[in-house]
Amino acid sequence: MEYETPLFFRVMQYADRADRDVIDMVSGNPDWEPPEALREGLGDYADFEPDRFQYPPSEGLVELREEIAARRNVDVEQVVVTNGAGEANYLAMARALERDRGDEVVLTDPVYPYYPGKTTMLGGRQRFVAADAEGQLDPAAVREVVGEETAAIVVNSPNNPTGAVYPEETIRELVAIAEEYDAVLVSDEVYDHFDLSGRFASALGVDSDHRIVTNAFSKSMAITGFRVGYAIFPPHLVENAKSRHMLVNVAGSRPAQYAVLRGLRETEPDYYERNRELLAERVETFTDALEDAGADYTTPQGSFYVMARFEDYPGTLENVERLIDEAGVAGMPGEAFGDSRADWLRFALVTPRVSAAAERLAAYFDR
Fold first, then answer.
1. CB within 8 A of 24, min separation 6: which ones?
2. Is the pTM of this model over 0.85?
3. What's the CATH code of the domain at 298?
């Protein structure tokens, strides 16, 4: 079995080697401050007794799992703290596939590239269903591709790369399809705090044994390097997930989990609201510049990505490298996200230099 290095890393490496100033709009690393309470919790940890520097419970600190369970209105035993949303999705997809209910994983097109990569790694087969021009997913289109071999349906809302936010009726229908075919809906909700539409609906709002919800604090608390995420499993799927987690990771970082717990308990809602407002301002600045440049573009309902299409400039890796060399802006090739957006480029708005990037792109394509 062969694996390819994700294009994210190839683009970032190319940008790092450039002999000019390059604005990074590739990675999803928030550039704003983490919560102050989280910083304080991490600082306090240095003075704890030696026993607090040893292994935590494999499935996560009890207090953190209890806090997550209370906020998500689930039983604490359903919660597994993971090494970011990446491991949470891995565990969820693994549990879906190892039930011997088929080996197909239904994914969207466009798709976050790590989902098909995990499917291959876990021995599954990929099936794709196209989202519409705005990134919305039609449950009727999903129903056309699922069948007896469908183990999982993997969705992401708010969505990377399209910025779509699925309404409650879509989520409910996707859970119903999973129930009908004895599949598992894996709902990745890592951008839930960046809903700009007011329409976000968690799959936890649907009572079902056929859905697993994954999330992380990486984006919402601007701590992608802490690697603290979680998955919420139905009771009959959780024990094997805990065993797999223990075999792969043993446990997660104890001080990182403690700091996140402090952040959850002591951070007021206005922290998240300020960051949403900042993101909304950047979306307006960036899309206004794309409008001036004559580009087609998406206006995200959530997450922090904008896709753009420039005339006669398809979203290939070669063109991304040209943009780095000649415009000093690094984005992601649309072809990385599937066939349907191969003519597009994706830009992450998590840089204070959004205005400068917009000006560079407008000037470059206005030549």
1. 12, 15, 330, 351
2. yes
3. 3.90.1150.10
